[in-house]
């Protein structure tokens, strides 16, 4: 049977006789404009659907309606979509399911409009019943190495919501720039948000960077919430801290001088584990996050910490003595514990990259800590064995979209290669996990690290369509996944991405 061109592939699809077709949909305006003439299927329709249990929109000719109705027996984000010649009817138990169903319809309409160059839509009649495999389906965007505008961030949020994702992980700080305003700590954005870009000129006069205003952050968060996407901020601590140290040298072991880094890599200077000032700093940052982000979680980083400064620092040595720690590496476990407790006091749960598991024999792990497995799958497996919830984003399994999509000098991308097929094969809870461990896998995400990225266009080129492949790996049950089917559906999505003004890779998929 021919597939409908939906990504991620729904749980059940039954094609029926006839078509839901016409020239014009209910006239709405908004962000996603397919053409000037054809009515627009705009994401803000979501708001209207959210307010109404039963809602009906008619096309201008009144020949077709789109209906959202309350239904029973659906999972939280599950929905039914019944398409007849006169009606596209979404049923769900609440607004989330309704929104996911609406995105499926949006894809069908967009693909069909793309096919006719915006003149008409024509969707086969069908019955779809659908629900996601995992509750966490995410995308991470690194806005430190490259500062992306709030408008670009919003565009990506809208796109990932079209592909059934529900989590946007916002990487806001790193060695190359600090992007978050924090009350009482103005140097973070005055100094930490800017760096000299030596790639452009040998002279120190080419300054790049930026930060988001509070207003922009609130706008992004609200924009995401309207699309049923939770925004998880990440503040990377205690490593990847050059931008923090440039602004506040007193937080480092040596006192500096430090600079916001223009180079890429893992730097020796990290926050000093021996000074309480780092917790005053973290408290101010967490308060700012609490004010701006309603998310249940805060990501505290924890990846790629180098320990040589702690080995040499008298204050860090004293701290180790105070807590009976034998190795500087254990100081990271101690910091993770402190930060997670500070977040817990603020009603938030901490997430850390998988290195937070290291050297924790003595101090253990914070009780509710969620582990994000990136170096491979083993960190996720270990965290689950230790009873912790896990988000899988292994760079070894197609989740790192900054890698080249193809082994070619002509392709952008860094460090390694990840094909679309590899992203498609990603399984966040593979059969090697026991049922008990698999139950702790919240889901997964793909990450886009932005070292060496000159523009949002290049970022999109690397993200799409591999994000579509990961989206299917997160939503669709393994028995419903099929790469040949995905390739077929991708043809329609390429046209759709063109129509949505999204740059995307078009080369070999494997
Ligand atoms: C990471 O890729 N350093 C989390
Ligand atoms: Zn120190």
TrEMBL record:
<comment type="similarity">
    <text>Belongs to the glycosyl hydrolase 20 family.</text>
</comment>
<dbReference type="InterPro" id="IPR015882">
    <property type="entry name" value="HEX_bac_N"/>
</dbReference>
<feature type="active site" description="Proton donor">
    <location>
        <position position="304"/>
    </location>
</feature>
<protein>
    <recommendedName>
        <fullName>beta-N-acetylhexosaminidase</fullName>
        <ecNumber>3.2.1.52</ecNumber>
    </recommendedName>
</protein>
<dbReference type="GO" id="GO:0016020">
    <property type="term" value="C:membrane"/>
</dbReference>
<dbReference type="InterPro" id="IPR029018">
    <property type="entry name" value="Hex-like_dom2"/>
</dbReference>
<feature type="domain" description="Beta-hexosaminidase bacterial type N-terminal">
    <location>
        <begin position="6"/>
        <end position="130"/>
    </location>
</feature>
<dbReference type="GO" id="GO:0005975">
    <property type="term" value="P:carbohydrate metabolic process"/>
</dbReference>
<dbReference type="Pfam" id="PF00728">
    <property type="entry name" value="Glyco_hydro_20"/>
</dbReference>
<keyword id="KW-0326">Glycosidase</keyword>
<feature type="domain" description="Glycoside hydrolase family 20 catalytic">
    <location>
        <begin position="134"/>
        <end position="477"/>
    </location>
</feature>
<dbReference type="Pfam" id="PF02838">
    <property type="entry name" value="Glyco_hydro_20b"/>
</dbReference>
<dbReference type="InterPro" id="IPR025705">
    <property type="entry name" value="Beta_hexosaminidase_sua/sub"/>
</dbReference>
<dbReference type="GO" id="GO:0004563">
    <property type="term" value="F:beta-N-acetylhexosaminidase activity"/>
</dbReference>
<keyword id="KW-0378">Hydrolase</keyword>
<dbReference type="InterPro" id="IPR017853">
    <property type="entry name" value="GH"/>
</dbReference>
<dbReference type="GO" id="GO:0030203">
    <property type="term" value="P:glycosaminoglycan metabolic process"/>
</dbReference>
<dbReference type="InterPro" id="IPR015883">
    <property type="entry name" value="Glyco_hydro_20_cat"/>
</dbReference>
């Amino acid at each position: 049977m021919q597939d409908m061109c939906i990504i991620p592939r729904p749980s059940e699809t039954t094609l029926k006789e006839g078509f839901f077709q016409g020239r014009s949909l209910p006239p709405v305006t908004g962000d996603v404009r397919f053409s000037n003439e054809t009515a627009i299927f705009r994401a803000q329709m979501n708001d209207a659907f959210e307010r109404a249990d039963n809602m009906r929109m008619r096309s201008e000719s009144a020949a077709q309606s789109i209906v959202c109705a309350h239904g029973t027996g659906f999972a939280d984000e599950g929905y039914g979509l019944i398409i007849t010649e006169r009606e596209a009817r979404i049923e769900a138990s609440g607004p989330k399911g309704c929104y996911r169903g609406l995105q499926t319809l949006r894809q069908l309409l967009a693909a069909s409009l793309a096919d006719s160059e915006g003149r008409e839509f024509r969707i086969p009649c069908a019955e779809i019943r659908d629900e996601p495999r995992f509750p966490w389906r995410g995308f991470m965007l690194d806005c430190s190495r490259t500062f992306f505008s709030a408008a670009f961030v919003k565009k990506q949020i809208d796109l990932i919501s079209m592909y059934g994702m529900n989590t946007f992980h916002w990487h806001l700080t790193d060695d190359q720039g600090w992007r978050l305003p924090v009350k009482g700590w103005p140097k973070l954005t005055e100094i930490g948000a800017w760096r000299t870009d030596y790639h452009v000129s040998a002279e120190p006069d080419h300054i790049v960077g930026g930060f988001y205003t509070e207003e922009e952050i609130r706008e992004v968060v609200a924009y995401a919430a309207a699309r049923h996407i939770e925004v998880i901020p990440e503040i990377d601590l205690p490593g990847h801290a050059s931008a923090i140290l440039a602004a506040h040298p007193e937080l480092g072991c040596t006192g500096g001088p430090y600079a916001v880094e223009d180079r890429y890599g893992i730097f020796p200077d990290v926050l000093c584990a021996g000074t309480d000032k780092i917790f005053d700093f973290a408290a101010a940052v967490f308060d700012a996050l609490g004010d701006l982000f309603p998310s249940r979680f805060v990501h505290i980083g924890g990846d790629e910490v180098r320990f040589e400064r702690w080995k040499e620092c008298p204050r860090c040595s004293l701290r180790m003595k105070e807590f009976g720690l034998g190795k500087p590496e254990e100081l990271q476990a101690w910091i993770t514990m402190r930060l997670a407790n500070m977040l817990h006091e603020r009603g938030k749960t901490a997430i850390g990259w998988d290195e937070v598991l290291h050297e924790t024999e003595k101090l253990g792990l914070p009780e509710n800590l969620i582990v994000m497995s990136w170096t491979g799958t083993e960190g996720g497996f270990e965290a689950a064995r230790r009873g912790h919830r896990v988000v899988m984003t292994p760079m070894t399994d197609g989740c790192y979209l900054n890698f080249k999509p193809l082994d070619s000098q002509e392709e952008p991308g860094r460090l390694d290669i990840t094909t679309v097929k590899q992203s498609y094969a990603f399984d966040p809870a593979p059969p090697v996990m026991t049922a008990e461990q698999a139950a702790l896998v919240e889901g997964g995400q793909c990450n886009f690290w932005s070292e060496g990225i000159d523009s949002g266009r290049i970022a999109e080129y690397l993200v799409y369509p591999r994000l579509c492949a990961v989206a299917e790996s997160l939503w669709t049950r393994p028995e419903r996944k099929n790469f040949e089917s995905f390739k077929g559906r991708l043809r329609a999505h390429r046209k759709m991405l063109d129509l949505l003004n999204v740059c995307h890779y078009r080369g070999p998929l494997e």
